[in-house]
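pasting for the record
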Amino acid sequence: MSDIRTNTPSLLDNPPIPVQAKLAAAWTSFMFLYIYVDYFHLYKPGAIDEIRGGVVFEFDISPTLLTIFVASVAIPALMGMLSMTLPARVNRATNLVVALLYIPFSVFNAVGESWDWASFYGLSIGIEVLLLAFILRSAWKWPRTPAVPAGPATTDLRQ
């Protein structure tokens, strides 16, 4: 008996996913988590009272503070769109820089918190950092195509 093989793809065949789509999906996941961590923070006893008293963390609520908060949310929110639209070289650099900057920014959320909240902040920050690490790895390993060397031997290839 001969073993006959066909090229019929299985139902679980995974076509390659462009790096831009991976980055956009990771930034989207990061944003969902980022927003929900802030939202769930409101459930902490005293959090709403502090906000009503005009304080967030140790900072007085002001137009400047809220502008900083909007910017801190807008940057990763825009990264989903930018990951799909920027040219490859700029896209790679932007993802590397922003993801690197957001690692300490994510860790800052735990500053001053008690050990009672370690599981909440440890899990949320841990997942955020894992997503940022995925973004860094994906951008760092951005697929490259070989450059066509210049010269008379390759003139026909470039035309």
